[in-house]
Amino acid sequence: xxxxxxxxxxxxxxxxxxxxxxxxxxxxxxxxxxxxxxxxxxxxxxxxxxxxxxxxxxxxxxxxxxxxxxxxxxxxxxxxxxxxxxxxxxxxxxxxxxxxxxxxxxxxxxxxxxxxxxxxxxxxxxxxxxxxxxxxxxxxxxxxxxxxxxxxxxxxxxxxxxxxxxxxxxxxxxxxxxxxxxxxxxxxxxxxxxxxxxxxxxxxxxxxxxxxxxxxxxxxxxxxxxxxxxxxxxxxxxxxxxxxxxxxxxxxxxxxxxxxxxxxxxxxxxxxxxxxxxxxxxxxxxxxxxxxxxxxxxxxxxxxxxxxxxxxxxxxxxxxxxxxxxxxxxxxxxxxxxxxxxxxxxxxxx
Length: 350
Description:
The chain has 350 residues and is α+β, with helices and mostly antiparallel strands.
């Protein structure tokens, strides 16, 4: 079987599969039945399944691969975010935990389980199963989370629901997750460059402002006529905006100056010479809705202690995916490799 844009001898780099290749694979190999309301697709945060009851079942799976620090916390919240981005409430969690041989202690395993338990409790989620094993050829632990949730049928939000004319709202700012990972994975370099205080602040980003978007997603869907939501993860907010546009077959106009970049994040990105727009960004949520409701949503979130800003508009597909900067209008880059991989590559070369 031949893909015109795919070289069968090419080795893929670290990161997501190229979007066009993944899209082709899904169309060829992922047939649906009548119970699948939302199936796999570019920009789709989770699957939605009809079970015959008053609510849809939402299912999501995501691994934690960029960091081994606080991986239990990450696994729960990253998967819960995708349930919430569909308008649902995360309810049940399973975890597959693969641990390296001759490097894993009982204390290591208990720490991960404790993080999963604490994270689940903070969101009202029940740990219902999974699998744990010691396996070979691993140099660090890996965790793959599976989250199940529910949504009232009239509250389902599809990532493909954006319409030309919609306002795009971004909560918190970027890149919460990337900032914490950099400080944890390259702690010695960050300490040398900025001191221990900076390291501590950045590591704490997973808790404050926090990588969970469940609260703001549920608030938005309960009180507003949300057209679409999407949480930026690997590839950052830039890639998430591309995915949002692709899911709805529309264009995107982003206002670069309106996208909040935390000062700590900017300093780290400047130091490591990476672009914050392409840095893994869990902790932020993209919401599209009628312009008249956007400012009300922003004010409502502010009263709940959640910062948000209007960062752009949905436009016709013919206008493409663009970003407006002080230097003018340009194409918004699609990051098929997260900017974190540049740091890892630079460290390997040094």
